[in-house]
Amino acid sequence: MLNDVNERQSNLQKKLGEIIEGPVFSGIIQFLILASAVAFVLETEEVLRNKYRIYFTIVDWTFFALFTVEYILRIYAAPVKREFIFSFFGIIDLLAILPSLVLIPGFRVLRVLRFLRIFRIFKATRFILAVDRMIEALAEVKRELLALVILSSLFVYLAACGIWYFEREKQPIEFGSIPDAMWWAIVTLTTIGYGDVYPKTPGGKIFTAIVALVGVGLIAIPSGLLASVLTEARVEEELQEDEEEEDEK
Length: 249
What we know:
There is one protein chain. With 249 residues, the protein is mainly alpha-helical. The protein contains ten helices and no strands. It has helices at 2-20, 23-43, 46-51, 53-77, 81-85, 88-101, 125-140, 142-167, 178-189, 202-248. Helix 4 (53-77) packs antiparallel against helix 6 and helix 8 (142-167) packs across helix 9. The chain is flat and about 75 Å long. The two termini are 52 Å apart.
């Protein structure tokens, strides 16, 4: 009789696992994830928060209850519960409900972690292959990227030294030291250009133009490297698929 009970429980776990991993259940969960993210964004509006505070609280606890039930069901349906709990997706599922459990002021802002559950879409085969391809591409160019990081750090240092030399007397507060000038160097080399600090001397303006041109090149290099490797990986994959189709024929 004990074996029959265990077998029925095992069958129930399998059926429950199939439902949880099925397209309908997964679609509902993805919708809830997006809805919770939208609710979190709207709650940051002071007017809406003050006017509909009670409704935001109800919605938040509803999401918490639903995600908690789903987490418990996933643990129950998991063949090896310990593996699921400490797996990547298990930890993400726990992080989705943990902020609502901890009643510490300011901690509930971490409800934004619920959106991390969107990573579950990567369980689909096509997404897994795409992620694997990106990881392989990064691995192939890791030496080049490391060299680029070192080179960029060198350029930041040189740019900070240069702008400090040109602007230290004209703007002693903004460019009074090389560490102060490094913020300008990073913003300029990355082509962001906030405009909070900028050169006012002729020499500083010319130097800034040179730094900006160098920055454009630095930004383009990693994009080109990754694009090249990803294109090669995609071409190789298509060739392999064509060979498999020909072998099947």
